[in-house]
Amino acid sequence: MQTNKIHKHEITVSGTRWLFALSTITAWSFATLLLAHASTLGAILAGPLYTIPLISLGEWLVHGVMYHGRIPGLKFIRDIHHAGHHFALFPPKNYVQHGKYEFMRFRKPLVPFQMSDNALDNWLTEWSQIGLHFVVGIPLILAPAWLLTHSLPFFVSTLVTLGFVSWLLAYVHGVIHTPADRAIEHLRWFQWLDRHHYIHHIDLSANINFLLPICDLLFGTQKAVLTDEEAAANPSFEEAKPQAKDIPRKPELVAA
Ligand SMILES: [Zn+2]
Ligand SMILES: [Zn+2]
Q1: How far is the CA of 204 from the centre of ligand 2 (A)?
Q2: 145 CA distance to ligand 2 middle (Å)
Q3: Taking the CB of residue 109, how many other CB atoms lie within 10 A of it?
């Protein structure tokens, strides 16, 4: 029988693995800075190459440490994501919602947790997520980009990349949980992320990256399949989200 079991184990990364992950990203970042110094075109191209792995680090830290960890003074953020998003609104047996809006209500009163029922609440939650990832990117990405190169084309390229990916991250997560036959839902990478994220909704210690799984690979938190025990205790992805576009439709339904 499916009991809808969310695994609550803590994210564990060894000291050696931290060292490996951070030194890999640092080495990559310095290599892209060489390209940034080469020419104006090099600087523009180096922007996303430098920024994307660092945003992956930013989203891994925001999601793994801020949303699921216990940081003094930031309990409300953990409550919203861990208790609200995972346990109240989107447990595996209820992985999708069908209301008008993509994001939960984030203003007080938080409890009982509920989806936004108006455009303002939806906007506030979406843009606070975008803003949080952007703000984390200021010391992590933008400040070193400028201080280490003083290249305006490189800086603008990193700024545009950070802004766009911060938005995309929040947008795609909202869409994943509120299927509505949007064009993006037909794209292969979206469908891959959807299944990747469903695993996170069952095992909270895995697939910490939502959009860019680079740091899941580096930190060893990438998980491609559920264990037999997890699979037996939870709905399959197909049961949890029958609207997913990569599930083959039954021929008689397609013909109808
Ligand atoms: Zn989610
Ligand atoms: Zn989560």
Answers
A1: 6
A2: 29
A3: 8
- Residue by residue, DSSP assigns 68-95 as SS--TT-HHHHIIIIIIIIIII--GGG-
Span from the CA of 207 to the centroid of ligand 2 (angstroms): 9
From the CA of 239, how far away is ligand 1's center (Å)? 16
Looking at the CA of 6, which ligand is closest?
A: 2
Q: Is 208 exposed, middle or buried (0-12, 13-18, 19+ CB in 10 A)?
A: buried
Those residues with Cβ within 8 angstroms of residue 85's Cβ, 6 or more apart along the chain or in another chain: 104
**C-alpha to C-alpha distance for 60 and 74, rounded to whole angstroms:** 17
Could you tell me the pTM of the whole model? 0.91
Give residue-wise pLDDT tens across range 209-248.
999 999 999 999 999 999 999 999 999 999 999 999 999 8
Q: 10 Å Cβ neighbour count for 46?
A: 27
Ligand 1 center to residue 215 CA distance, Å? 18
Contact 101, 123 (CB under 8 A): no
Bridge partners, residue 7, by sequence? 203
19 vs 72: CA distance, rounded Å = 25
Q: Tokens standing for 200?
A: 């996170």
Span 84-93, pLDDT tens digits: 999 999 999 9
The rounded Å distance from CA 114 to ligand 1 centre is 14
In the reported structure, the alpha carbon of residue 200 is separated from the centroid of ligand 2 by a whole-number distance in angstroms of: 7
CA of 70 to the centre of ligand 1 (A): 19
